[in-house]
Amino acid sequence: MNYAKIKKELLKLSKEEREQIIKEINLELNPPVPTKSSVLTFRRDKLNNKQGKCPYCAHTGYVRYGTDKGSQRYKCKSCNRTFTEYTGTWLGGIHKKHLVDNYIEMMESKSSLDKIKNQLGINKKTAFDWRHKILSSVEHSEKRAFEGITESDETYFHLSEKGIKQIVRKPRKRGEAASKRGISDEQVAVIVTADRNREIDLSVATLGRIKKQDIKRVMDNRIAETTILCSDSHASYKGYAVDRGLEHHAIRVDLKQYVKQKVYHLQHVNNIDSRLKKWIQNDFNGVSTKYLQNYLNWFRSKELLKTSQNFTKEFKSLSLEDDQAKVRFKSIPMGYILLKKNSSLN
Ligand SMILES: [Zn+2]
Asked: Are the CB atoms for 325 and 137 separated by under 8 Å?
């Protein structure tokens, strides 16, 4: 069909139909510029809409108070201190803020630090620090209480000072005593907890075997009286459940029992554990213990936003909700020292 013929055919259509075709053709010729949601504006929007709080005292009363080098400044009505939209967040103190949106997009598309370094023109140390500033900020994102049947289990990673080490696999089909035989202070215990409502917790607990107080420390504030705890028959879990007066179902993996009364099992946490290990092994070839919690935060945020239509946008937004992220990032080296010290005291 040639042009004249097409035009003739088109003119046979109704006015509305022709207008619709023009619209569609125009849309194809000039696709709308995607509105890029910048990480730089999330917090300002929130603060300006009176949905924020003072990063120093958490008071919700504050007023706009001029600008500071292009950032919006606010003044707290309670403690009278001033802060900007970035104070306390991982963006506070970052100079090349114009690169952070690209950075997060590259981070989420699994770009290596070297690739990020080359593409964004920042040095590798900066690329590494930004990663961990961002990951520190999602540590406490949307943590809710566990509801109903809640599975919890420990898993182990080799203690690693440098980052690239093999991962310990926890044998599942052998008896408990055997599978956990050989757990030493060279192994980092991570407690994996999940309810059946997609709520997850992944916490570095200690070096070596976990104790009742480790369980208490990592999950106590997220356990409700109605929580039904499901774990292996480890004495620490039993003790914790007794202390809290929780309904507790111990799965005797050592007796090859995997499901109890059809609903009590550890399949969710075991599944999370195996995906977590694969991810850390395949994408990072292992990570250093010092930063392990941050990678757990990353994994958890991916799980949290699994069904999200726009993961990157929501991840950016989550990361800026934490106005204590900068402190959290700075305390990573001390956290690592304490992990080793506290474990040796146990
Ligand atoms: Zn204040």
From this structure: yes
Q: pLDDT tens digits, residue range 197-246? A: 889 999 999 999 999 999 999 999 999 989 999 999 889 999 999 999 99
Please list all protein residues whose beta carbon sits less than 5 angstroms from ligand 1, which is an ion. Answer: 54, 56-57, 59, 76, 78-79
Q: Work out whether strand 62-68 and strand 149-158 pair parallel, antiparallel, or are unpaired.
A: unpaired
CATH class of 149-304: alpha beta
How remote is the CA of residue 56 from the centroid of ligand 1, in Å?
Answer: 5
Distance 47 CA to ligand 1 centre (A): 13
pLDDT digits (tens, 9 = 90+) for 118-129: 888 899 999 999
Q: Of the ranges 164-173, 265-274, 296-305, which one carries the lowest mean pLDDT score? A: 164-173
* Nearest CA-CA partner of 284 in 58, 131, 140: 131
* Angstrom distance (rounded) from CA 256 to CA 222: 30
Judged by average pLDDT, the poorest of 27-36, 76-85, 114-123, 239-248 is 27-36
Q: In what order do the strands lie in the sheet with 82-84?
A: 62-68, 71-76, 82-84
Q: How far is the CA of 75 from the centre of ligand 1 (A)?
A: 8
Q: Enter the DSSP assignment of 309.
A: S
For the four alpha carbons of 288, 294, 297 and 301, in that order, the dihedral sign comes to: negative
Going from the Cα of 58 to the center of ligand 1, the distance in angstroms, rounded, reads: 6
Give the distance (Å) from ligand 1 centre to CA of residue 60. Answer: 8
